[in-house]
Design a protein that fits this description.
The protein has 255 residues and is mainly α. The chain is built from ten helices and no strands.
Length: 255
């Protein structure tokens, strides 16, 4: 195969004409096989999944904290307002407004070239930025799910002698999770695809690897099409896993 590639490449270099299939073979070989370039894509996938996992953990933890605080603030009884809770709620409200009101690309540029300008760990900076961005959306998804649970559930838990934390943990949150799982799944899929943006600050992920190959082969179509196909496969796998998890939750409800 390598010999055939070299022969066809020499023909094209010398000004000879290649057939459609020969041209396809040369460009495909250059994009994925020559110099073991498939390993660069594989490494890019690994880094993409690492960034996604890091951002996912940050986003879920941050979103859960913000959602619980804002829900607790909204569920305060009239005349029993907690001043500290109101201040923290105000800060979190500004956070969600600013993050959801500004483009992801701008946030990455600010974090990469302003706040962490001296850092060389661009992938970690990208994961942190994606996590902070995702946390704002996750918080609103979780908050909506928590607020959708009937208020009588909270009263029932408190009447059993449970404090607010235990009531949220054992009664409210399990019910809310089942309702918000599809929305959370969509947010996580968006997070996976948004990892491609960190290449603008130098983050080495899948798109960064493809762009590096394009700069060496001067052929953009096949590396970028291959990258798109890889992202599609990753999203399909994640969607399948999410659907399987949802089915298990429904089966547990029937039992």
């Amino acid at each position: 195969m390598a010999e055939l590639f070299e022969q066809l490449k020499s023909v094209a270099t010398s000004g000879g004409k290649l057939t459609g299939w020969q041209s396809f073979f040369v460009k495909f070989y250059q994009a994925f096989i020559e110099a073991d370039r498939w390993k660069q894509y594989l490494g890019g996938v690994g880094r993409t999944l690492w960034v996604t996992a890091m951002a996912l953990v940050i986003g879920v933890i941050l979103g859960l904290i913000v959602a619980v605080v804002r829900t607790a603030h909204d569920q305060q009884r009239p005349g029993h307002r907690n001043a500290v809770l109101s201040i923290v709620n105000f800060i979190f409200k500004i956070y969600t407004t600013v993050i959801r009101g500004t483009p992801m690309m701008v946030q990455l540029l600010i974090m990469g070239f302003v706040i962490f300008a001296s850092s060389k760990n661009f992938a970690l900076v990208g994961a942190l930025t994606l996590g902070i961005n995702s946390g704002a959306y996750v918080s609103e998804i979780i908050r909506g799910g928590l607020m959708a649970v009937d208020s009588g559930q909270m009263e029932a838990g408190r009447s059993l002698g449970m404090n607010y934390t235990d009531t949220m943990r054992f009664i409210i949150v399990p019910q809310a999770v089942k309702a918000i799982l599809p929305a959370l799944g969509n947010e996580f899929i968006m997070l996976l695809k948004d990892t491609s943006l960190i290449s603008v600050i130098g983050g080495k992920e899948l798109l960064y690897a493809a762009r590096g190959i394009v700069s060496r082969t001067y052929e953009a179509m096949y590396p970028f099409l291959g990258t798109a196909a890889i992202y599609l496969v990753l999203v399909m796998i994640f969607t399948w896993l999410l659907g399987k998890f949802e089915r298990r939750l429904r089966q547990s409800d029937r039992r």
